[in-house]
């Protein structure tokens, strides 16, 4: 949506029947489908309220990743159920970025092996599955048992967290990197770098457009970090001490 002028002075949160709500002055925030904007945890409510409070003269919706994820979870515009969300996430295994390898140039092939193999090995051990990699355009042959293991693991997350997991996977084009990130095995910066390994290799070799590369990298880091935070905040049942938007 286009930017609009900031129309509120104060942002606060309150607890309602369905969870925690966001108040813009005396108005309650609503979703694009006009549902009451209600989130399951106080920590997530504080994070969303901070996004709204950090807007200056105009509201830049494209910077409010947590708000967008909450809207998606509340409105569910694609009308998918839990298993459909899980299957969509697991389907990324078939085209996972770090499973597709090159044979040439040799330097890039070596870089992929050195950087990606340890993450694949971690995932295989962590989930007791076989994943592997391939230089074929068809990609690796992922065993059905591996897919079902990830289906079972993802089923342990609630619907809100699953929306966040799919969002992170979409950013990184990798289920394996996303799970490494959500399981706190790798950092956001590391996950983003590994997802862009070939691009970073080409940039180091040929250079980059002066501003475009840095902008794309910062945007990807911001979206990936927001998605990961969203998953963690939607997975925690504990509330944080009530402290909000102090100057």
Automatic annotation (TrEMBL):
It comes from the Eukaryota. Its main location: mitochondrion. GO terms for biological process: mitochondrial proton-transporting ATP synthase complex assembly. GO terms for cellular component: mitochondrial inner membrane. The keyword Chaperone applies. Keywords: Chaperone, Membrane, Mitochondrion, Mitochondrion inner membrane, Transit peptide. It is a peripheral membrane protein. Belongs to the ATP12 family. This is ATP synthase mitochondrial F1 complex assembly factor 2.
